[in-house]
Amino acid sequence: MAALEFFFFFLVLLFSAGTQGILGFTNPDDDRALQSLKDQWKNTPPSWEKSDPCGTPWDGITCNNSRVTAMGLSTMGLHGRLEADIGELTELRSLDLSFNPGLTGSLTPNLGNLEKLNILILAGCGFTGQIPDELGNLSELTFLALNSNNLTGPIPPSLGKLSNLYWLDLANNKLSGSFPISTSTSPGLDQLLKAKHFHFNKNQLSGSIPRNLFRSGMELIHVLFDGNKLSGAIPDTLGLVQTLEVLRLDRNSLSGPVPSNLNKLTNVNELNLAYNQLTGTVPNLTGMDHLSYVDLSNNSFEASEAPAWFSTLTTLTTLILEQGSLYGTVPQKVFSFPNIEQVKLKDNSFNDTFSMGDSIGGSLQLVDLQNNQISSVTLSSGYTNSLVLVGNPVCNTSLSNTVYCQNPDENPKTYATNLANCGNKFCSPDEKLNPQSCECAYAYEGTLYFRGPSFRELSDSNIFHSLESSLWNKLNLTPGSVFLENPFFNINDYLQIQLALFPPTGKYFNRSEVARIGFAMSNQTYKPPPEFGPYYFIASPYHFRGTTVQGGLYTSGGGGGGSCN
Q1: Among the listed ranges 20-24, 173-177, 262-266, which one has the minimum average pLDDT value?
Q2: Dihedrals φ, ψ of 405, to 5°?
Q3: Residue 563 DSSP class
Q4: How far is CA 167 from CA 137, 142, 172, 271, 454, in A?
Q5: What is the spatial distance between Cα 293 and Cα 387, in angstroms, rounded to a whole number?
Q6: Per-residue pLDDT tens for 405-455?
Q7: For residue 397, how many C-alpha atoms fall within 13 Å in the half-sphere facing its CB?
Q8: What digits encode the pLDDT tens for the residues 460-500?
């Protein structure tokens, strides 16, 4: 009897296994949606040729109880469009397609069907058209990154319904129009009380910044509106957002005086109001005792002597006020601050005798006073770094033949990770030399853009050593397997650095490792040292094992073949 019971039990198991093999582990609706996406996309991972996305499984697909709950395909070289089928994956919690520039076309409104979605990352792709209103249906969304595409049109007011959102990045697109504010009949961005990040920089947004956009009780730490076409006054309601740490309004057409309550933002460490049309007196920043970087250049402030805070904000690393109307004596006190690295005051009207005093901060690297009216200088033996006085009367007399009256080097030596231990070894054009092993490998490469670092001096290699170690530690890579090169401040005043990460063994990362690293960078799981501030990353196409390069495009033998940008 026992043997018979065992036989029937074995038959049940066999039948179940056979049924499972026929039906597969994946929910039929999810399977249909994924198969359709696979047919539309080129360069999908080779594992997508297998029959069962959850049971096999497919690279980049995470399942729970036969339902697809996450899709992570960062830096896979996908090529195609994001069609309506994506909306059938109704159990998705996370969707990351970042750094696939071959994904183009408009964003389907069916994304709004993914009502359980927490994370939506489409950064660094090639999407065009407008942001769908239907994204406002994603009530569970906490992280939305659509930056670095070619999106156009207005910011949808419906995004104001995303009450759980803490990260909103729409930067580096071609968005136009004004900031949507809530009314009795329409939502607006002012309702995003849990948001910590408003990244709208480098678009074509216009009109004024509404007073109602900001209110007390908001939790914003980064407000990045730089590089738009904004006009009108800076709203005084900004002074109510006490959590702010980085405020960038530069490179717009803002006008009028700076609100007097701006100095209530005592947690701000970067303030950039440069390249606007601001008027009135130079703003009073007294009391902003965490401020490390300030740039007020290229505005139309009233002529005045240097404000008192030039001598009191001892936390400053960088003071920039160029193309201004300051006159009188440059305050000596600023040069004694313990962390001061750069003082850039060119194209003002400072006159009289210039002296840095006898107590000079040990971090000071650059003092740029080009094109002022300084007629005499008292040099200090305690300072041997760069002092630029070109264009001052003193360069026509006593200092005419000195280094101080020569144009500064426009191409200073920049940092690169040390490869001295690797001798003269060279790699093929597609490979790079791993500084840890001194072996050639296919690195995961890309560009880091730091939008608000608290420093501007790039001669301190320790800064970059700390970035290297944070990358290999937080991304779980082999110590020493990070290469940085060519850091510089670009035209948008972002610190731009080329990055290469190396596999722990062998020449290649596998696809899951590439997707993991891409997600860590796009989802901001990776946090750099705090002095680097907010950042974004754009990955280069990865040369997977088994791919070939044809005309500069990576082509895979599996997953639909094709090529990617």
Answers
A1: 20-24
A2: -110, 25
A3: B
A4: 16, 7, 15, 20, 21
A5: 20
A6: 988 877 778 899 999 999 888 899 999 999 999 999 999 999 999 999 999
A7: 9
A8: 999 999 999 999 999 999 999 999 999 999 999 999 999 99
